[in-house]
């Protein structure tokens, strides 16, 4: 196990993708919402993810206006907010898990909470907590100078999103600016396990991005079963699973939530019949 202080967040993330690649597979990147169904269960799940097969973790900071999140994640965020979960609570969950040997953790949030918290303060909280960086999906590339300036000196990852509607030239510019990995949105719309990813579109987009960057490419939105994970990893370098995981443990808590999480992640990694 590499000590948190030994490598930067970017380097730890790079190492996670490299380990998955060396094992002949893509990285598995589950998403949890901090504080859902409660902070104690989130902490337990974060502590169990390494042994459950996760390579990287996205930990969502609950927010009341989640533009990119579908009904499952939005509901999880609201449940967490109803319990009073704050940015500091989410950061502490991630920092504690990182100290205890969890896979590399990225926070997932939106720009308004970051701006209100303070860019420098937010970046410093990530770095001092051993958190690898953050995904902030509503920051356009042209307006990202401030957050990039706060993250870069601290060695923090900042993946940007490429959507199906993104023109190729712009997608390539986004990929070149992404740090840690490029987040490829599999289809139009918000996150949801009920809509199929468009793998034909993804394959073409990945080919165009491979020409301009060696940064890992991870596919999210709609990745919900083992077949999706296998297909995503045939095309790209990682698969992000959020809504389907939250659906799997539902409103369960404690040991039951842990067992449901483990069983679901095991199903994603299962060999084809």
What is shown here, in short?
The protein is α/β, with parallel strands linked by helices. The chain has helices at residues 9-22, 39-48, 71-82, 87-99, 111-117, 119-128, 145-151, 168-177, 199-210, 226-235, 243-249, 254-268; strands at 27-33, 57-60, 105-108, 133-135, 161-162, 182-185, 217-220, 238-241.
What can you tell me about this protein's structure?
- The chain is α/β, with parallel strands linked by helices and 273 residues long.
- The protein has one domain: Aldolase class I (TIM Barrel).
- Helix content is 47%, strand content 12%.
- The chain has twelve helices and eight strands.
- It has an eight-stranded parallel sheet with strand order 4-3-2-1-8-7-6-5.
- α6 (119-128) packs parallel to α7 and α11 (243-249) crosses α12 (254-268).
- The longest helix is centred in the C-terminal third of the chain and has 15 residues, at 254-268.
- It is globular, with a radius of gyration of 17 Å.
Mean pLDDT score: 92
Tell me the number of structural domains. 1
Span of the ends, CA to CA: 33 Å
Q: Any idea what the CATH superfamily is called?
A: Aldolase class I
Element order, helices and strands?
HEHEHHEHHEHEHEHEHEHH
Strand content: 5-15%
Shape: globular
Q: Give the fraction of residues assigned to helices.
A: 40-55%
Total helices: the number is: 12
Q: Which consecutive residue ranges, at least 5 long each, have pLDDT under 50?
A: 189-194
């Amino acid at each position: 196990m590499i000590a948190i202080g030994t490598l930067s967040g970017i380097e730890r993330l790079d190492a996670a993708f490299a380990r998955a690649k060396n094992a002949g597979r893509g990285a598995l990147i589950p998403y949890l919402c901090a504080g859902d169904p409660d902070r104690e269960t989130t902490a337990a799940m974060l502590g169990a993810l390494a042994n459950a097969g996760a390579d990287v973790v996205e930990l969502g900071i609950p927010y009341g206006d989640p533009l990119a999140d579908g009904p499952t994640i939005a509901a999880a965020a609201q449940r967490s907010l109803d319990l009073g979960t704050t940015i500091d609570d989410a950061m502490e969950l991630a920092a504690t898990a990182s100290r205890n040997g969890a896979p590399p953790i990225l926070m997932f949030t939106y720009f308004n909470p970051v701006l209100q918290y303070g860019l420098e303060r937010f970046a410093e909280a990530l770095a001092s907590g051993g958190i690898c960086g953050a995904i902030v999906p509503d920051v356009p590339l042209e307006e990202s100078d401030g957050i990039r300036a706060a993250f870069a000196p601290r060695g923090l990852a900042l993946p940007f999103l490429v959507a199906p509607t993104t023109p190729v030239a712009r997608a390539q510019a986004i990929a070149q600016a992404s740090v840690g990995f490029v987040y490829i949105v599999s289809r139009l719309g918000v996150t949801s396990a009920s809509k199929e990813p468009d793998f034909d579109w993804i394959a073409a987009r990945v080919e165009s991005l491979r020409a301009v960057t060696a940064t890992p490419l991870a596919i999210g939105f709609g990745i919900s079963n083992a077949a999706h994970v296998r297909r995503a990893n045939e095309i790209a370098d990682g698969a992000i699973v959020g809504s389907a995981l939250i659906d799997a443990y539902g409103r369960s808590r404690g040991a039951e939530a842990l067992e449901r999480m483990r069983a679901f992640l095991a199903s994603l990694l299962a060999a084809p019949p």
